[in-house]
Amino acid sequence: MSEFIKPELVCPAGTPASLRTAVDAGADSVYCGFKGPTNARNFPGLNFTKAELSESVKYAHDKDAMVLAAINSFPTAGRTDIWKKSVDDAVELGIDAVIIADIGMAKYVAETHPDQRLHLSVQAGASSPEAINFYVERFNVKRVVLPRILTVPEIKRVHDAIDCEIEAFVFGNIGMMAEGRCSLTNYVTGISTNMDGVCSPASHVDYEPDEEDGLTTRLGDFAIDCISCGETAGYPTICKGRYDTAHKKNYYAFEEPISLNLTRLLPDLMRAGVTALKIEGRQRSRAYIRSVVSAFRDAVDAYAAGDEPDITELIALTEGHKETQGAFKSKSWR
Ligand code: SF4
């Protein structure tokens, strides 16, 4: 046996069908959101009505899996009732934890539903012990989802100085480390990642054939990439477009289309005190969810048993078959 406690595997569920798939593939918990602007993945075709979430909670609980409700976008003045109702509905449905980013919503949960388990979303951007302890002391937060800007030794230092659990992203999409603070999409589309829950909405994406059988990708009025014939391309977000700058032509000025993959770092993360491993991807297909969750289930179980897992399948599931360990090893930005 290994020297660390087996962590919770926290998996994405964009739809009721994805939730069932993740649970059946071995998720310890799934995270999901209501339809509407209250969560950070407010895409058409995704998310849950109250009735769907009720059924899904029952399904998960029957299989000993937990359901975490992400209510983690930022309400604006005059619209807070929508967020409060989502919290009330989640509590009524017996959700295992509410994931909150906005400090006002944290206060609302703590005061209105003091027995409800509360997690602090990555969107809150709390990365120092002082910030995290503030939420723990004031709002009884039980877990913090750390921004993807910390190294393993930094996570260990945070762990040693806080009084709540740590959840860390280990696989999936990686942005430019602007957790909860990215305004790129607002600039181009007028729709906010932080307040509307939408980055690079499909309604604003357009592909124009060019003269060389390629495609120019547009978001709003801006060309953000040119894709050659036969080239693979991910979903067009602004941070992963190719641009001409004063110094260089046609390159990924912010970030490459690449996936975070920390599988090899799992033992280090567990030793550092991470107790929940989060897989990104509520917008992904059921086939993807099944493959990634199963592979991580096997990897976590193998590491926890002191064995070495085979992770080749996970590499095949990365965006463009390219992986990074982000700020943990590969990137200099933070
Ligand atoms: S533009 Fe990139 S960094 Fe900003 S919210 Fe979208 S995916 Fe994240």
UniProtKB/TrEMBL annotation:
<comment type="subunit">
    <text>Forms a heterodimer with UbiV.</text>
</comment>
<dbReference type="GO" id="GO:0008233">
    <property type="term" value="F:peptidase activity"/>
</dbReference>
<keyword id="KW-0378">Hydrolase</keyword>
<protein>
    <recommendedName>
        <fullName>Ubiquinone biosynthesis protein UbiU</fullName>
    </recommendedName>
</protein>
<dbReference type="GO" id="GO:0006744">
    <property type="term" value="P:ubiquinone biosynthetic process"/>
</dbReference>
<dbReference type="Pfam" id="PF01136">
    <property type="entry name" value="Peptidase_U32"/>
</dbReference>
<comment type="similarity">
    <text>Belongs to the peptidase U32 family. UbiU subfamily.</text>
</comment>
<keyword id="KW-0831">Ubiquinone biosynthesis</keyword>
<dbReference type="GO" id="GO:0006508">
    <property type="term" value="P:proteolysis"/>
</dbReference>
<comment type="pathway">
    <text>Cofactor biosynthesis; ubiquinone biosynthesis.</text>
</comment>
<dbReference type="InterPro" id="IPR051454">
    <property type="entry name" value="RNA/ubiquinone_mod_enzymes"/>
</dbReference>
<keyword id="KW-0645">Protease</keyword>
<dbReference type="InterPro" id="IPR043692">
    <property type="entry name" value="UbiU"/>
</dbReference>
<dbReference type="InterPro" id="IPR001539">
    <property type="entry name" value="Peptidase_U32"/>
</dbReference>
<comment type="function">
    <text>Required for O(2)-independent ubiquinone (coenzyme Q) biosynthesis. Together with UbiV, is essential for the C6-hydroxylation reaction in the oxygen-independent ubiquinone biosynthesis pathway.</text>
</comment>
